[in-house]
Amino acid sequence: MPQPSATRVALAYLQRQAGAHLDPEEKALLDEGKALLVKADGKVKGILPKNGKKFSLPEAQKLVGGYVEMNSVGQYRVLMNEDGLMVGLPPNRKASRIFGQPLVGDILFIHRGQF
């Protein structure tokens, strides 16, 4: 029987725990309709798309520093650099704690309708 990929394991966890490991300030930013940019250095910033509604692909690529890998989790989407491990991006301990899976680079956590 094949083993589930790390991404599928992370998605299963997120479907059960989406938002459970966010600080109250981070939850408040999401409640305001903002996306969370979880930087690899641990800083979290609430942001809105440039057009006020949806992130464009080039905008998302700039935020995660490369090609975008996207996973849908409940009402949210998680965007990350799909080549992050291969190019040696630094561990993102904050995002790893939130999502319960080792992640690297900057991570964008958005509402489903924002991409």
Question: How would you explain this protein's 3D organization?
Answer:
This protein is an alpha+beta fold. The chain has one domain (6-114). It contains four helices and five strands. It has helices at 6-17, 24-31, 57-64, 93-99; strands at residues 35-38, 44-47, 68-73, 76-81, 107-111. A five-stranded antiparallel sheet has the order 2-1-5-4-3. It is globular and about 35 Å long. The relative contact order is 0.23.
List the main descriptive attributes of the protein structure presented here.
single chain; 115 residues; alpha+beta; five-stranded antiparallel β-sheet
Outline: globular
| H/I helix tally | 4
Strand content: 15-25%
Spatial strand sequence of the major β-sheet:
2-1-5-4-3
DSSP strand tally: 5
Radius of gyration: 13 Å
Short précis:
The protein is α+β, with helices and mostly antiparallel strands. It is built from four helices and five strands.
Topology:
Elements: H1 6-17, H2 24-31, E1 35-38, E2 44-47, H3 57-64, E3 68-73, E4 76-81, H4 93-99, E5 107-111
Antiparallel strand pairs: 1-2, 1-5, 3-4, 4-5
